[in-house]
Structures are given as structure tokens and as C-alpha cells.
Amino acid sequence: MTEIPPPPPSASPRRSAPARAGYRALRAVRQALRLLAVELGTPTEPGTPLLGTVRNLWLRRLPYGVAFAFAVSLLPVTIAVLSHDYGMAGGMAGALATAQAAPLLLAVTRPLQAWWVIFAADLICAQALSLLDGTVGRPWPWPPPVIVGYLALMLALSLRERRRTLIAVWLATGAAGVVSDIAAPDGIQSTWVLLFVLSGVVLMMGAILRERGDAQRKLIEQETISEAERARRTLLEERARIARELHDVVAHHMSVITVQADSAPYRIGGLPAAAADEFGAIAASARESLAEMRRLLGVLRSEESERHGGPEKAPQPGIGMLEKLVEATVRAGVPVELALPGEAAALEPAVDLSAYRIVQEALANVVRHAPGAPTRVSLRTTADARLTVLIVNSPPPAPATPSAPLETGGTGHGLVGMRERVRLVDGSLDTGPLPDGGFRVAAQLPLAPPAAPASSPPTKDSGAL
């Protein structure tokens, strides 16, 4: 019989369990070292000074002053300690002291790069001190001036770098201390644990302060954005409310056009067929426009008006209803004096509505912010065909808590609403406090607002409606 040879051994035998575990551990160590190198070599915002975004000029200059004070004070002290206490040569002591203290000035703008220089100088200094006889009985590997300068550098690092970088710096500091302790000379006072603990405390405290400052800054930015959005939303709500009110004015004119166009063939005898068809087309277009306006009103109608039972059935008010408004205000505890024009002026509906709403908003503000303050409301026409609306209130007789608005359904957003209504009819508004503590609202409205250009392109503000 032919003997079958045994199979050849595999070219890549399967690793044993201990070998696989060692391989995974080695790979994890390599990845950790690679991540450590990336973190230590990637500074955050290089070139930007510490506290560079602070508005106060003295606070922006503070890091430069602190760094200069540390560098100037540590340089001669380090030279004296290395040369006199440890017996290092003067030139070597001066060079190492300069490399350990001068980079503190660089730490204001580039703390991570300054750490590389100072850390390397500290390692070289520790190696040089281990060869000297004066090291026996003295702190090693980090002399006291080195510890002070290193902690100052840790503070600058913690105020700039991210958390992973700070952890990498702290671990590198501890690793250097462990390695130096293995080869430590006899009779020395080991200081690597002290520096390792103190640097960790400084890094943690600085990181907490920086993160708290970042959180406060983001909160302020968010509040600023929210305030701007709130103002924008208030403006849009006020414009939508004005548009809903003007719907009644425009709908009245469109209804008149529809009725006149429909009744023209019956009112005008002998009307040609072409003219009758034209009037019919005008009436049909007017009815379509009214239907579109109703749809637009449905879009602009607020949820609050829907909750209160749908659209208002009452007609829009004008200056003829100011007496009733003043009577209601007096009953609410605010003494009001009203002065109307001697002759009834012919006002356009938009101007009439705007004048009433301005007075209403002003009286509502008096009720809210100055309850009980004597108030005077005066309306008069001028020679240049303008209506002047003036509301002046004195300071309240005694400090009082703000009250609810007089008419919750009619008031809008105070001064914002007044400005929008004045802008609507191309008028002007002047508001502000008085020297005696009161408040003044003065509006100038044209008796007839200017007609809009026929081919004017829509503006950004009008598109908001």
C-alpha cells in the first residue's frame, strides 16, 4: 500500500489566546499613543490671545502682564537656584532658565507650543541635574522654580485647549515623572508626584472656569438671538393684525365696486352690449378678489381670534368712537381729557383706523405702566392736510403695580404697533419720556394716505405680510 503523507503545516498557524491578547493590547497602546500625539500636536485657535474676546481693555491685557511678571521673576530665580543650590555651570543654568521661563510669554497666544518648549527644557534640566553632586538632598527632577513656572503654564493651557489635550498633557507629565523616578539618583527628594498632582488640579480648575465661561457666553448669545427673534415675531404679528383690520376697509371698497358694476346696466339706459359685458367682467373680477381676500384673511387670522369665536363682526373703529374709549378708560381709574377737532375732518378709512388704534395703544400703556396718571388726548387738523394725534400723561400719583390692558381684544404690541400703523399711512411718530416723569406720544397722519405706485416691486418688509 502507498503511504499517504501527512498534510503540510499551515503557513500562518492560528495564534494562541495569550498571543492574541498581547496583540490587541499592543494595538490599543499604539492607538493611544497615536491619539496622544495628535492631541499634543493640534493646538486650539493658535495665535488668538487669552481673553482676547473680552470687551474690557484691561482684562484683555491682563494675560500679557501676568506672563511678563512670571517670566521676569522666574528667570533670575531659576538661574540662582540651578547655579548656587545645585552647582550647575552659569552658562548652562542661564540657557536652561531662559528656555523654561521665556516661553511663558508665548503661552499667552500659543500655550501648547510653549508647553513643548518648556517641557523639553524641563526634561533636559532634570537629566543635567542627575549628573551633578549638588542634587543630593534636594528636590528632583523638578526644582521649585520649575514647578511654579510649569503650573503657570498649565493655567494658560487650561484656559485655551480642549479637554482631551489637557488630559494628554497631564499624562505626558506623569509619564515623564515615572520614567525619571526609575533612574533617579540616590538621596534626592522626589517631586514628580507633587507636580503631577498640582498640575492635574490646576488643569481641572482652569478647564472648569473656561467651560463655565463658554456656557455663559453661549447663553448670552442665545438670549440675544431669542430677543431678536422675539422682536421679529412681534413685528410680524403686528403687521398681520393690521392687515386683518384693513381687510374690512378694502372689502368695503370692493363690495361697492361689485354692486356698482352689477347695477350699471339697470341704472344706465341704452347701455351698449359691449359696455354691459365690460361691467359684468368688472363685477366678476371684484367678486373673485373678495373671495381671495377671504382666503388671505383666513391665513392671517390668529389662533387667539379663532379661540374667541372666529372673526369679529363689528366694523372697524375710528376717531368717532374715541369718546367711548375715553369713558371706559376713566372708569378704569385713569383720568383722561379728550379734545377733538372742531370740524369733522374727512379721513380715509386707513387713517381713521390708525388714529383710533394709536390712541388706544397709548391709553393701554398708561393703564399698564402708569395707572392713575392724568392723561390728555388731543386731535387736530393742520393747514398742510395732516392730522395730529397727541397723548401726554403725567407721572402716576403713587407707585403702583402694572394693570391689565384696557381692551385685550383691540390692543397690540405698544410702540411697535404704533410705528407700523404710522408707517402704513406714510406718517411720523415721536415718542419719549418727559422731564417730569410722564410720557408723550405724538403722531402726524396725512388726511389722505398717498396711493401706492402701480408697478412698485414688493419690498422685503411687505413680503413679510
Description of the structure:
By secondary structure, the chain is α/β, with parallel strands linked by helices. The protein is built from 14 helices and seven strands. The protein has helices spanning about 15-40, 55-85, 90-100, 105, 110-130, 145-160, 165-180, 190-265, 275-300, 305, 320-330, 350-370, 415-425, 460-465, and strands at about 140, 190, 335-340, 375-380, 385-395, 430-435, 440-445. The chain has a five-stranded mixed sheet with strand order 3-4-5-7-6, covered by helices on one side. A two-stranded parallel ribbon has the order 1-2. α8 packs across α13 (about 415-425). The longest helix has about 80 residues, at about 190-265. Mean pLDDT is about 80; it is low at about 405-410 and about 455-465.
Task: Provide tags for this entry.
alpha/beta; 60% helix; disordered C terminus; single chain; 465 residues; elongated; two-stranded parallel ribbon; 8% strand; five-stranded mixed β-sheet; 7 strands
Beta content: 5-15%
Terminal-residue CA separation: 102 Å
Structural class: alpha/beta
- What oligomerization state is this entry in? single chain
Strand order of the largest sheet: 3-4-5-7-6
Give the mean pLDDT: 81
In percent, how helical is the residue content?
A: 55-70%
Overall 3D geometry? elongated
List the helices and strands in order: HHHHHEHHEHHHHEHEEHEEH
Annotation, overall tally of beta strands: 7
Taking pLDDT < 50 over at least 5 consecutive residues as the criterion, the unreliable ranges are 404-411, 454-465
Sheet of most strands: 5 strands, mixed
